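Box 3.1. Reading complex inputs
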Amino acid sequence: MTSDSLLRAFSLLLKRDLTLAMRHRAEMINPLLFFVLVTSLFPLGIGADPKLLQAVGPGVIWVAALLAALLSLEGIFRSDFEDGTLEQFLLSSHPVSVLVIAKVLAHWLITGLPLLVISPLLGVLLGLPADAILILLVTLALGTPVLSLIGAVGVALTVGLRKGGMILSLLVLPLYVPLLIFAASAVDTAAAGLPVTAHLSLISALLVLSLSLSPLATAAALRISLS
Amino acid sequence: MFNNFFHKMASPKYFYRISGILIPWLAAGSALLFLAGLYYGLVKAPPDYQQGDSYRIMFIHVPAAWMSMFIYMVMAGAGAIGLIWRIKLAEIMAISSATIGAWFTFLALVTGSIWGKPMWGTWWVWDARLTSELILLFLYLGVIALYNAIDDKRTAARAVAILALVGVVNIPIIHYSVEWWNTLHQGPTVTKFDKPSIHLSMLIPLLQMAVAFKLYYAFVVLMRARCEVLERERNTGWVRELAEKT
């Protein structure tokens, strides 16, 4: 087994997932709509005072992104589990953790990237200053892959359960706390006109850590769920 | 010989017998230390010059908070052993610890907020250590929920072990993220080894209580593990024999 064929398996898997997503566009758009909807509910709930909105804006957008990611997480493995593809992955001669990275990357491209594209609009709606919107974009670019990576572990653990959704949120949301804290406070700090390098370094560290560890945990969890 | 001991301990039958002998001793030790710790803590120790008598809740609060962390580590450690060497008993210990750990965490939170009312003037503040304790409680609840959701208990135990390990990697991250986010809690006063800023008359009951909690955990976890062992091994010869004897 050469690294060449592994690369091929990786890109084929990625292409397959992206093609599947393009054929079911509604599944792609729903989390995005959810993201926009939840964010726009907040001004209705807490009042449209621009100062207030600006203060809660970063947190609101990030919490909404977290929930939107949670909503779409099950899609990573659910259909593959139901039609038996997942078992084929485990039987293949390639390391499962690499295949997991391909699946997670596809999931991020399908659900994380659109959030990124639409988030400046939400930033404007909540009256964030331009600098803060830029940092919001950076934190989302670094942070949404973390959401998918950590989420993949949770999904792998719950994929065999009939009512995994509720448990999934219980497993995954506490693990999202550090990311939420660093990302929201980065945007807050940027809005106050202060440097945010420290926050961004920490979020990048989270990304590197979850990129290196979570595929291993996901692979182990998949083996258990399918045993 | 050492190896042999571990092999024996890993066998459910042997474990059942040894734990049966240990439990009364652990329970008695725990009860004695509880009495001593409560007496010295509530009666003998002087009131604090700032906090008056309210500080005395720390004799419950601090050991409970220590236990909440300690049990999570035990759970993850036992889970890892179960995953790597496929030792059933380690899996059982891990899952038997989860509920106890969750209750200790809950106890730490409740006593903390009872203390917080007169001291900070409010039941709950979004202080760093309170928040990370709350998240620890959520991690425990996630572990318990996952275990209950999976029907096959061996699969469940292994899934829980992975979750506990993921949690262990995250606990320090969560802890520091929350710490940098907000802090109001008083700094640690016991772990400063060179010169603890807590007086000996308060430190001794605190340590007595801490050991009492540890023994209490040991005996409860053994009792829970025994039940679990019996349930899982109900079709084996030795459990049948045991059932017929009684």
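In summary: Chain A has one domain: 3-225.
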